[in-house]
Amino acid sequence: MKAQINFYKIDKFNLNLGDKIKNWLNAIIVKNGYDYSEINYTFLTDEDLLQINRDYLNHDFYTDIITFDNTIKETISADIMISIERVKENASDLNVDFEVELLRVMAHGILHCLGFDDHTTENKALMRRKEDEVLNMFHVEHKTSIKNV
Q: pLDDT of 30-44, one tens digit each?
């Protein structure tokens, strides 16, 4: 099977991520000594992601991302689900562009697959530093933000 990164979206969300994002995600993975087989990003509503959180994790709260990590050794395989509504709200709360917050959340899922977690205050701080580092990789490489999102 050819290694691939796939994007699936809800009907009302205009997603135009293209190869720049795939190349950036690939660069994050390779820089950390990993490979990947298949990574699926699914962009959902708050309610859809809440239902997945309830059904599969027994959590009854909204979240911006759920990562189902099936990584074996250094080969990432994952289903990453993102609430577009939550990303928009977080971007507003943090006073950042939606595009930047979306990239951060997308990278967050990959970082989980690379072994980073965010269950403690210390780990959350490390995760944020790693997110900032990989966001900088995108902006240096492409010198632009996502267009048409």
A: 999 999 999 999 999
